[in-house]
């Protein structure tokens, strides 16, 4: 039997960076993140690459714990999984994920052929069928979650750390997220957050990826697709599609 992978076998370490340097080369570091996490790209001697994400604040640790729960409940080929969790000496954790090349899809999507963008949208929707089946709802779905490998023309979803079981009642003044993707209820303390909120975020994803301008004045899709998105983003959740599957079926029928 081969030895366990060093990043997937260790359960506790005294400090993250010194340990990572014992197992490979740190070829990237992402330090100034709003999330309170720091992340590293680690290349092993055999050329294999991994992504390690570490919490550095209590809020970041809460988010990373939530993400760990999410990844235990949801698996999909488009969602980059958290495979292992390491406890660091001062009682915070780091998670280990496969490294994938790519960049945020939102801006560069304008340069892609329409067929590629439609495939990317369909992959996002398909992944969220798995999210829905697990009883989870999307929170903080935004541009940075869409990692696109332009060489392979494949989209992957990352940083789904705020996804959580639903429905739930919002206990804060607003949820985290980008205003361009957020439903009206995500800004209202006491509001119900459920799968119809996820439908709204997914529709905004399709709307933004298929528009050629930030001001949403250069729609690249069809009138039928736009009509589906308009229903999915109605201010009243009761007037939207009842769930991701219903929305996905309507989108695919219009595509």
Which terms summarize this structure?
three-stranded antiparallel beta sheet, six-stranded mixed beta sheet, alpha+beta, 255 residues, 33% helix
In words, what does this structure look like?
By secondary structure, this protein is of the alpha+beta class. The chain has helices at residues 6-9, 16-23, 58-73, 114-133, 195-209, 223-232, 244-254, and strands at 12-13, 25-30, 37-43, 49-55, 84-88, 93-98, 103-104, 136-137, 146-149, 154-157, 164-165, 168-169, 192-193. The strands form 4 sheets. It has a 6-stranded mixed β-sheet. Strands 7-9-10 form a 3-stranded antiparallel β-sheet. A two-stranded antiparallel sheet has the order 8-11. The protein is globular and about 55 Å long.
**What can be said about the biggest beta sheet?**
6 strands, mixed
Order of helix and strand elements from N to C terminus: HEHEEEHEEEHEEEEEEHHH
Helix/strand-derived class?
Answer: alpha+beta
Helical fraction equals 25-40%
Q: Could you list the spans in which at least 5 consecutive residues all have pLDDT below 50?
A: none
Average pLDDT, rounded to a whole number, is 93
Strand content: 15-25%
| Anisotropy-based shape | globular
- The strand order across the widest sheet is 1-5-6-4-3-2
Number of strands: 13
Cα Rg: 19 Å
Distance between the termini: 49 Å
User: Can you count the helices?
Assistant: 7
């Amino acid at each position: 039997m081969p030895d366990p992978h060093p990043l997937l076998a260790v359960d506790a370490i005294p400090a993250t960076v010194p340990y990572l340097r014992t197992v490979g080369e740190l070829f990237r570091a992402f330090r100034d993140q709003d999330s309170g996490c720091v992340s590293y790209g680690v290349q092993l001697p055999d050329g294999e690459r991994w992504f390690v994400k570490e919490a550095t604040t209590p809020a970041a640790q809460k988010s990373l714990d939530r993400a760990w729960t999410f990844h235990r409940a949801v698996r999909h080929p488009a969602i980059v999984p958290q495979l292992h969790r390491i406890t660091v000496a001062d009682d915070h954790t780091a998670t280990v994920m496969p490294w994938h090349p790519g960049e945020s899809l939102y801006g560069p999507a304008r340069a892609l052929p329409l067929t590629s963008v439609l495939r990317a949208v369909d992959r996002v929707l398909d992944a969220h069928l798995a999210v829905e089946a697990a009883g989870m709802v999307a929170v903080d779905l935004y541009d940075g979650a869409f990692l696109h490998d332009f060489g392979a023309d494949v989209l992957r979803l990352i940083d789904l750390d705020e996804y959580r079981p639903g429905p739930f009642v919002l206990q804060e003044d607003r949820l985290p997220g980008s205003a361009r993707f957020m439903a009206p209820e995500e800004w209202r303390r006491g509001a119900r957050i459920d799968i119809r909120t996820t439908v709204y975020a997914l529709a905004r994803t399709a709307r933004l990826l298929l528009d050629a301008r930030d001001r949403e004045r250069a729609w690249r899709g069809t009138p039928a697709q736009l009509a589906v998105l308009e229903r999915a983003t109605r201010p009243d959740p009761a007037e939207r599609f009842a769930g991701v599957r219903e929305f996905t079926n309507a989108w695919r029928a219009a595509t």
